[in-house]
Amino acid sequence: MAHPLTPETLAELRLLALFDLNSHQRGLKIHSHAAAEIIGAAERLFAKGLTSQHDGGYLTDLGYEAARALRDVLDILDAEAEPHGH
To answer: Which domain of life is it from (predicted)?
Structure first.
């Protein structure tokens, strides 16, 4: 089944992409004056068990797996297209 890329999902993906996967000691702090879409995304990621705090915090183990998978997809999409023999 296809998963629609709603504005909410895109905001969550953008936020996940900001986490530094090279260090579990670096988290994110979403300030109260941030855009409502970012605050909402942070709260949803926390509710889904991907982050340690409702305003960012650190990635949980599940959050790290999700962010790593997202990074892998972004790396594939950013790669230069290779000829497919067509």
So the answer is: Bacteria
